[in-house]
């Protein structure tokens, strides 16, 4: 039986960095949300696990046999192998959790075909801090390193969203290293829209210091009349939220005309 699953693009509607931990990681509070588009994985039963990667950003994966799709397969016990084709539509090192989203889709594929072990969250967390969130792919709050999941009132489902990336990869490690270490306070309380509007991304300034074009992307999006513009994760992708699809469509047309070399993705929050 063939199964197809979307690896939904992850965005951080807010990302508060509270402290640097002794283990080298950072204590975070973030509002995760997911766009109804992303990479696409197609899986079929096979004698042995194997992964084929294609699509616009397939070249950004250095070793297709050592990516998070292959690692996700290896992390889950099954009675049968899976042959997976990964259509890589999301840019790599872009703040969209692309690899984590791919691993999350693998977990959902295995869940549908074979079921997941009781300790699936621990297995997912070992692959990356965002992977448990990407398995769920729904709006929620993440704490700790992002692996602690807290429910939130989701009043954002269906919100038109537009993603823009200047086609400049930006690795997470250097961005966290450039953070100034100041605790600027906790996430606001309330429903998702309030948290997103009143929150912030503490990695935005350090990311811009390393990749100045992010500021240009943010400025371009602010000129399209959204109700929220912010960078996602550690960048360099930025997003804008709109009250109507017509506003989002007009924004996409304007960005495409002014910056035809930038990557764009239109969608809605799940």
Low-confidence stretches: none
Tell me the Rg in angstroms. 18 Å
Distance between the termini: 26 Å
User: Can you write the helix and strand succession as a string?
Assistant: EEEHEHHHEEEHHHHEEHE
Q: Assign the CATH class of the largest domain.
A: Alpha Beta
Protein structure class: alpha+beta
From the coordinates shown, what is the CATH architecture of the largest domain? Answer: 2-Layer Sandwich
Give an overview in words.
This protein is α+β, with helices and mostly antiparallel strands. It folds into two domains: 148 residues, Ribosomal Protein S5, domain 2 (2-Layer Sandwich), CATH 3.30.230.10; 109 residues, GHMP kinase, C-terminal domain (Alpha-Beta Plaits), CATH 3.30.70. The protein has nine helices and ten strands. The strands form two sheets. Strands 1, 2, 3, 4, 5 and 6 form a six-stranded mixed β-sheet that branches. It has a four-stranded antiparallel β-sheet with strand order 8-9-7-10, with helices on one face. Strand 1 and strand 2 form a beta hairpin. The radius of gyration is 18 Å and the shape is globular. It starts with a strand and ends with a strand.
Secondary structure topology:
Blueprint: E1 3-20, E2 26-46, E3 50-54, H1 68-75, E4 81-87, H2 98-113, H3 120-127, H4 131-136, E5 140-144, E6 148-150, E7 160-165, H5 172-178, H6 192-198, H7 204-210, H8 213-222, E8 228-231, E9 238-241, H9 245-258, E10 263-268
Parallel strand pairs: 3-4
Antiparallel strand pairs: 1-2, 2-4, 2-5, 5-6, 7-9, 7-10, 8-9
Descriptive tags:
6-stranded mixed β-sheet; single chain; 31% helix; 9 helices; 10 strands; alpha+beta; 29% strand; globular; 4-stranded antiparallel β-sheet; 270 residues; Ribosomal Protein S5, domain 2; Alpha-Beta Plaits; 2 domains
């Amino acid at each position: 039986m063939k199964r197809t699953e979307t690896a939904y693009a992850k965005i951080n509607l807010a990302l508060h960095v509270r402290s640097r931990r002794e283990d080298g990681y950072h204590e975070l509070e973030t509002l995760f949300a997911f766009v109804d588009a992303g990479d696409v994985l197609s899986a079929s039963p096979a004698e042995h696990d194997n992964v084929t990667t294609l699509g616009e950003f397939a070249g950004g994966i250095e070793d297709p046999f050592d990516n998070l799709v292959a690692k996700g397969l290896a992390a889950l016990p099954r009675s049968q192998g899976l042959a997976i084709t990964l259509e890589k539509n999301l840019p790599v090192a872009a703040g969209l959790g692309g690899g984590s989203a791919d691993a999350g889709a693998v977990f959902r594929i295995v869940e549908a075909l074979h079921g997941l072990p009781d300790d699936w969250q621990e297995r997912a967390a070992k692959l990356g801090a965002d992977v448990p969130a990407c398995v769920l792919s729904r709006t929620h709050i993440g704490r700790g390193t992002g692996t602690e999941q807290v429910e939130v009132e989701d009043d954002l489902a269906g919100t038109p969203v537009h993603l823009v990336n200047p086609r400049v990869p930006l690795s997470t490690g250097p961005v966290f290293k450039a953070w100034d270490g100041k605790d600027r306070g906790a996430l606001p309380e309330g429903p998702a829209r309030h948290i997103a509007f009143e929150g912030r991304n503490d990695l935005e300034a350090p990311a811009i210091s390393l990749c100045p074009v992010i500021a240009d992307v943010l400025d371009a999006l602010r000129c399209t009349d959204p109700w929220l513009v912010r960078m996602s994760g550690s960048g360099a992708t930025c997003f804008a939220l709109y009250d109507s699809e017509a506003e989002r469509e007009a924004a996409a047309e304007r960005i495409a005309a002014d910056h035809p070399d930038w990557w764009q993705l239109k969608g809605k929050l799940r």
